[in-house]
Amino acid sequence: MNNTIKQDIKNDLLGYNKERNIFNNNFHVTLNYFEMFLNGDYGNEQEYYNNIDYVKEYKNNHKKMLSFVINKFVNFISNDFNCSYSHTQKTIVSLFNKRELEQLNNKLINISLELIQE
Fold it and tell me: What is the distance between the alpha carbons of residues 1 and 8, in angstroms, rounded to a whole number?
C-alpha cells in the first residue's frame, strides 16, 4: 500500500519511535537537510547569500525570523515531497499542537541563525 504525502511527511518528522522524532533528536535528518537547503545545497547558491543577508538584517526580529523559517521550511518540505506549499503547510499544522509548532519553529530559527555564526 502506498502512503499518502501527508503520511510520508508525518513519518519523516515524527518517525516511528521517540528517537526518530524531530523534537527528540537535534541531529534529526530533516533538520540536517533543512540546513543544507538554507546553505543553497539544493542547487541554488544565490539562495544561500539571500538567506544570509536576510538573517543578518532580521536576526533580532522574532516575528520576521518566524515568518522566514516557516516559509523556508514549508518550501523545503514541499520540494522534498513534490507537493504544493499549501498542502505541506496544512499537513505540518495538522501534525502538531501549538506548543510543538513553537518548539519546531525555535529549532528552525536556531538553525537559520547558524548561517551567520563564524
Answer: 12
**What contacts 38, CB < 8 A, 6 or more positions away?**
47, 48, 51, 72, 111, 112, 115
Contact indicator for 78, 87 with CB cutoff of 8 Å = yes
The cell 508525518 sits on which residue? 10
Domain hosting 58: range is 5-116
Question: Residue 31, SS3?
Answer: helix
Can you give the pLDDT of all 118 residues of the chain as single tens digits? 578 999 999 999 988 766 678 988 888 899 999 999 999 998 888 999 999 999 999 999 999 999 999 999 999 999 999 999 999 999 999 999 999 999 999 999 999 999 998 5
Total domain count, the chain: 1
pTM for the whole structure: 0.93
Q: Are 19 and 28 in contact (CB under 8 A)?
A: no
- Among residues 37, 114, 106, which one has the least CA distance to residue 77? 37
